[in-house]
Amino acid sequence: MSHAFAVAHPNVALSKYWGKREGEGNFPAVPSLSVTLAGLQTRTTVQFDGALEDDDVVLGDAPAAPGPRARVVGLLDRVRAASRDERRARVRSSNDFPTASGLASSASGFAALALASVRAAGLDWTVEWVSDLARRSSASAARSLFGGFVELDAGAPGAPPETRLAARPLAPADHLPLVVLVCVATEAAKAVGSSEGMRVTMSRSPYALAWLEQAPRLHERLRGALLARDFAAVGELAEASCLAMHASALAAGVIYWNSVTVEVLGAIRALRARGLAAFASIDAGPHVKVLVHASDVASVREGLEGAPGLKRIIEARPGEGASLASGDGSGDRP
Ligand code: DP6
Questions:
Q1: Residue owning the nearest CA to atom 7 of ligand 1
Q2: Over the stretch 221-258, which tens digit does the pLDDT of each residue have?
Q3: Angle at Cα 63 formed by Cα 62 and Cα 68, nearest 5°?
Q4: In a domain? residue 329
Q5: Are residues 152 and 239 in the same domain?
C-alpha cells in the first residue's frame, strides 16, 4: 500500500515539556504528562508516488509555507530512509479546529503525519516506533499517538540521536472526570513558536535551571495524584507546572500572555474561592485551558464567560489516540 489516511487529536500537557536536551534528536529536557482530547481532529493523507518530482504538501487549503514544509519533509525523509524507498509524497492535512485556538496543532499534525506516512510506506512498525518518529518532529506529538493520560520521559543526557524515545499511556480517558474548557484569547496566530520560545528561555532565562530542576518533581507528584484519582491535586499541580514554565519564559522576555489570559486566571481564582474545581493550563500562546471537574462545567462556564475580551470557549473531553481510517471513516489501531 502506498496510500494511508490517519486521524489524530490534540493534547494538553498537565505537566509541561519546556526545554530540549542539547544536541541532535529533539529530546525533551524534562518529562511531561498530557491528556489527549476527543472531538477535535487533524486528518492527514499521505501517498507515495513515483511520478512526483518533489513532495507536494498542502496544509489546510494552501501549499505549506517553507518552515512547516521543511518539518513535514524531514519526517518523510526519515520514513523514506527506513523503507529504502525514494518516492516523493503527496500530503494533505487539515484540522477541524482553528489553528489559532492554541490547541497545539503540531501535536495532532505530526502524530497523524507519522502514522499515515509509516503505513503508506508499508512499514510494519509498532505504535511506540511511530510515537518516536513523531517526537523527532515535535515532542508533544509523541503523546498524541495514545489516548487518555499519556507520559513522555525526558531524554537521557548525552543520548545518541538515534536513541528511541516514545510516549506511553498511563491511564485511560475515563480515568478522571475531566473537562477542558479552552478559553480562546485571540483569533491571531501565535507570534513565537514553542521550539523558538524554549530555545530563548533555555539560553537567556535566569530561571531556566530552576525550571529544569522543578519540572521533574512536579511531574512525579502530578503522576502520583493522577494515579490516585485525586482531582484537586492534579489540577493544582498542573497549574503549578504551567505557571513555573511561564515564569521561566517570562524572565527571558518570552511573553505568551495577553490581557485576556490574566482576566481568565482571575476568573479561575474567583471560581475556586466559591469551591469550584477549576485550574489553569497555558501553552505557547495566550489561551487558557481550564481544567474542570465534569460536575462543575456549567457553573465554571458561566463564571468564565464574563471575562473581558474572551472570544469563545471550546469544550473538550479526554479521548482516544491516533488511528488509521479507511474510506468509510472507521478507525483501527496501528
Ligand atoms: C508548551 O512539542 O510544540 O505545549 O518539540 O519543539 O515541536 P517541539 O515543541 P512542542 O512543545 C510543546 C510545548 C508546550 C508544552 C507541552 O505540550 O508539553
A1: 138
A2: 999 999 999 999 999 999 999 999 999 999 999 999 99
A3: 110
A4: no
A5: no
Q: Looking at residue 104, what is its pLDDT? A: 65
CA–CA distance, 139 with 83 (Å, rounded to integer): 23
Last residue of one domain, picked from the residues 173, 204, 233? 173
Per DSSP, the three-state class of 55 is coil
Are 168 and 182 part of one and the same domain?
Answer: no
Q: From ligand 1's centre to the CA of 207, what distance in Å?
A: 19
On the question of pLDDT at 332 being above 60, the answer is no
**Residue at grid coordinates 530512509:** 81
CA–centroid distance, 228 to ligand 1, in Å, is 26
Residues in contact with ligand 1 (CB, 6 Å cut-off): 13, 16-18, 26, 32, 104, 106, 138-140, 194-195, 283-284
pLDDT, tens digit (0-9, with 9 covering 90-100), for 291-304: 999 999 999 999 99
**Whether residues 188 and 168 fall in one domain:** no
Closest ligand 1 atom number to CA of residue 152:
18
180 alpha carbon – ligand 1 mean position (Å): 18
Co-location of 15 and 164 in the same domain: yes
Per the structure, the count of domains in the chain is 2
pLDDT of residue 59: 94
- Do 29 and 160 fall into the same domain? yes
- Helix (H) or strand (E) holding 129, with range, is helix 127-137
